[in-house]
Amino acid sequence: xxxxxxxxxxxxxxxxxxxxxxxxxxxxxxxxxxxxxxxxxxxxxxxxxxxxxxxxxxxxxxxxxxxxxxxxxxxxxxxxxxxxxxxxxxxxxxxxxxxxxxxxxxxxxxxxxxxxxxxxxxxxxxxxxxxxxxxxxxxxxxxxxxxxxxxxxxxxxxxxxxxxxxxxxxxxxxxxxxxxxxxxxxxxxxxxxxxxxxxxxxxxxxxxxxxxxxxxxxxxxxxxxxxxxxxxxxxxxxxxxxxxxxxxxxxxxxxxxxxxxxxxxxxxxxxxxxxxxxxxxxxxxxxxxxxxxxxxxxxxxxxxxxxxxxxxxxxxxxxxxxxxxxxxxxxxxxxxxxxxxxxxxxxxxxxxxxxxxxxxxxxxxxxxxxxxxxxxxxxxxxxxxxxxxxxxxxxxxxxxxxxxxxxxxxxxxxxxxxxxxxxxxxxxxxxxxxxxxxxxxxxxxxxxxxxxxxxxxxxxxxxxxxxxxxxxxxxxxxxxxxxxxxxxxxxxxxxxxxxxxxxxxxx
Length: 507
Description:
With 507 residues, this protein is α/β, with parallel strands linked by helices. The protein has three domains: 48-298 and 330-354, 3-Layer(aba) Sandwich (Rossmann fold), CATH 3.40.50.720; 301-329, no CATH class; 362-506, no CATH class. Helices cover 44% and strands 10% of the residues. Strands 3-2-1-4-5-7-6 form a seven-stranded mixed sheet, sandwiched between helices. A three-stranded mixed sheet has the order 8-11-10, with helices on one face. Strands 9-12 form a two-stranded antiparallel ribbon. Strand 1 (117-121), helix 6 (125-137) and strand 2 form a beta-alpha-beta unit. Helix 9 (223-235) crosses helix 10 (267-278). The longest helix is centred in the N-terminal third of the chain and has 37 residues, at 11-47. It starts with a helix and ends in a 6-residue tail after the last helix.
């Protein structure tokens, strides 16, 4: 008798089968209900974010249970702001409030600032402090772009949010608090996430007078959105400054302003540069970044807890699909330092005040020295390959720039020798001995141009002493890399060279 036949005639088997089937049905129903409930929670969460054109909706309570209520002080501030923006606020009072800025920037500089239009994309820790500084300094037209709402965890780093603001849109929170400080400032609130298809609309000229943005501030912590915004500004000749990661940082003395081509140990900064390089953008975008390195005992981005995965698809855990759901460790002071540094750059740039930043704490001088040493190395190699003909190297140029040196040293080799890991007296040197002449000649006589065929994918970072030995024994000697270095070093160097070569097309 088959198992099925026995099961059909055995009451205990029938009971067990019924229990199993019933359990499966119940389990399926529970899981189905949980899935539906999760989707409903997400829908309610997204529906709770009001649109700007709903007027008072921005001041209503949301499903977050925010404590925001319209009180008499809010009403007085809004009434004063309407009067101020209509021109009824005494200009002498405004100048008195901005007196210290006026003395510092000169009356002409302050006038430029008061006529400026700045767009802030991202109104969290960095963006809120930047916005607050701009409004307090005199910028009269500010567009705020952010889809998110104030949460309790926002209060450790947001510039103006209070408990009463928990649950309302960040753009509305900034507007609500700042009109009580600078009622003459006009705000344009855009309660949505920046995205490619909306770029023309979100970065459009000011509605009154058609003024283009004088500056765009990138305070976004999502890599896709950040790269999209920076590329749009680059392609449309909009002045932009980008704030890199403030998360996991603790040393304010290591925060610098520099071009996007400069490198740091910050993951967001590194990922942004690499993505932009693939889009053909290697320079021309100022950034605020930190040179602070990670180390034992310092905060790190932790993996998402296993129980969060058990709740369902990770994408369902965020307010929007594909948006970061992990909690990034952030010391509340650091976003403020980043935000004020960003605002400071915008203020100085708009007013024409001299910008004289310390170049990466002396790193530019180091890059110049590395480039000069590389030039000398190529000249020596060429003379060696032509039996010490000194004239052949006269006027030789190498197709490597200071920016290339910075990229290789910091981005590819992380500021250390690829041989020993030392970080002192760094040099760049060819890894392999050329099999043919390195000289490229164009023209003749006085119009002759000489250059080396050197590429980024051939250079390795070493200390001065290591480079000297490498040149003597390999480039101008008879040994190979296998004769001098172990397998682990060879593999590490080859991986770095491959990484560098992939960016040559984007220079």
